[in-house]
Amino acid sequence: MEEEKKKSVKLVGYWPSPFAHRVKWALRLKGIHYEYIEEDIFDKTPLLDHINPLYGKVPVLIHGNKPLPESTIIIEYIDHIWSHNPLFPNDPLERAQLQVWAKFIDQKILWASWLAYCTEGVKQKNIIEKKAKEIIVAMEKLEKKIEGKRFFGEDTIGYLDLIVGFVAYLLPVIWEDLGSTKLILDPVKFPAIFAWTNNFMNHEVICAEPLPSRAEMLNLIRRRRESLRGIYTF
Ligand SMILES: N[C@@H](CCC(=O)N[C@@H](CS)C(=O)NCC(=O)O)C(=O)O
What we know:
By secondary structure, the protein is of the alpha+beta class. The chain has 2 domains: 2-81, Glutaredoxin (3-Layer(aba) Sandwich), CATH 3.40.30; 92-227, Glutathione S-transferase Yfyf (Class Pi), Chain A, domain 2 (Up-down Bundle). The chain contains 11 helices and 4 strands. A 4-stranded mixed beta sheet has the order 2-1-3-4, covered by helices on one side. Strand 3 and strand 4 form a beta hairpin. The longest helix has 27 residues, at 92-118. The site of glutathione has 11 residues, from helix 4. Glutathione binds at residues 14, 17, 19, 41, 56-59, 70-72.
């Protein structure tokens, strides 16, 4: 493992990508030096298909000369190679349960929000309402999970904090700015998640590098939605 730690680390990302930010946070929490390579997903270079032939998406970690895509898997890999400041518990069942949560959060909150706002056509309004209800149910489950804790990793930031990180800065842009609803990060309905967003965003490692501004995110999401026009139509 000591040999592995000596190899170069590069991260191919795109500035607003919530998936790339997770990996950046993991690398920073571990104090790993890395080179960042920006890849414009609107104008992809051949590199991306070369290093991620299955999906052609960012982020991709390049460790030595070997690429690894998929944010959740990259973070597990990082934690395996650089085991200090652990992001996962030792217990195999608890680790596996966190992975189940990660999948749930990506599908039921992140992907569901994106789908709601990229969908167009006659049923768009219904779909947004349906997805908003589903997301509230998912957020209620998340609220119970974080209740009484400072972080999902208990006293310190762990794997699930990195996965949920987008809730703190991206979800409000999608739902409040694009969708004109305050429902998602309501401090009365979700006091524990609300408190967590402050803990997370003010953590020294997380706030060490500024995240894209709300206005930048909003412009980008609008542009991306436009570029996906016609893909999710009902
Ligand atoms: N499941 C992937 C999702 C990655 C993803 O969707 N990346 C987006 C940027 S936020 C992307 O590269 N999109 C380019 C495309 O879809 O062509 C992960 O966790 O890394």
